[in-house]
Amino acid sequence: MDTNTPAIDPQLRQKLLLAQKNEITEHHIYSRLAKCVKNDQNRQILQQIAADEKRHYEYWRTITGADVKPDMSKARLYVLIARTLGLTFAVKSMEKGEAQAEAGYRQIAQVLPGAEKIAQEEDQHENQLINMINEERLQYIGSMVLGLNDALVELTGALAGFTLALRDTRLIAMVGLITGVAASFSMAASEYLSQRSEEDGQNPLKSSLYTGSAYILTVIFLIFPYLILHNPYLAIAWTMFNALLVIFFFTFYMSVAKDYSFRRRFLEMAGLSFGVATLTFGIGFLVRIFFDIDV
Predict the structure, then answer these.
(1) How far apart are CA 7 and CA 64, in angstroms?
(2) 35, exposed or middle or buried, with CB in 10 Å at 0-12, 13-18, 19+?
(3) Positive or negative CA dihedral for 248, 253, 256, 261?
(4) pLDDT score, position 104
(5) b/e string for 263-280 if b means 16 or more Cβ within 10 A?
(6) What number of helices (H) and strands (E) belong to the chain?
(7) Which tens digits make up the pLDDT trace of 14-68?
(8) What is the DSSP string of 165-211?
(9) Could you tell me the domains of the chain?
(10) How confident is the model at residue 147 (pLDDT cuts 50, 70, 90)?
């Protein structure tokens, strides 16, 4: 232990050991993330941050006089997140931890002045992480939002109307699938033509593929309950629950990756989808009565 370091009480020592564990864990996380990226500049920044985290760990070790093992399960988790949800989402999640660590270090700095420099470096890490990311999927996030929103609003509404008008789950699934696939092709074509007329650096073909893919995947997820249930009213209830899940997870992803307001976006998307579904459910009821249809 450093003889120039003031004596620390047991409670503070536990905080320092926790900080030490976090630093060595984040060193391994950033080192592994650096191996996942193809962009040389991004890789160098991640490697530099990993080296800084290791240096922070070494500083805390001179204070505590103890070696601490990293949380390798956490490191593996963040690598998995980066591979599945993208580096941006993983790094933004790490950024939130950096902000918490920075606040904790400023408190410790009142007793240990060396912690102030670490807090400043944690803040620097946050700024670097924000500026370094340039993922293709985020460049085309607008196209995915377009496909996702349209599928949620249009298909939940259509399925709600079909449910009351047709009352046969197989028939509803068939009509819904045809409607959804046709709409996905239409949306993809519209996005392609829209991007062709604009000069914002986006590839029109990629934009259309992102839009169409988001649409068709949402369609399949929403229609799925009609393929396994015989009661159309249970199926529409399950479909609406699936729609809520899609809205929740996509909004959460956007709130982390793009720093959007989760609550506002979630309520907006859910309100539109459920509002249109309720309206078309009523229209299906009126159509059934007006045309005296019994399927």
Answers:
(1) 10
(2) exposed
(3) negative
(4) 64
(5) eebbeebbebbbebbeeb
(6) 11, 0
(7) 878 888 898 899 899 989 988 888 878 778 888 888 888 898 888 888 888 888 9
(8) HH--HHHHHHHHHHHHHHHHHHHHHHHHHHHHT--SS--HHHHHHHH
(9) 10-134 (1.20.1260), 137-291 (no CATH)
(10) confident
Compute the 3-state secondary structure of the chain and give helix, strand, coil in percent, each to the nearest 5.
85, 0, 15
| Contact status, residue 59 vs residue 53, Cβ threshold 8 Å | no
Q: Hey, what amino acid is at 77?
A: L
Each residue's pLDDT tens digit, 238-277: 998 998 888 888 888 777 777 677 788 888 878 877 787 7
Structure tokens at 47: 């490697």
Measured distance CA(27)–CA(44) in Å, rounded: 14
Contact by Cβ (8 Å): 278, 158: no
Residue count of the chain: 295
The whole-model pTM stands at 0.65
Amino acid at 265: R
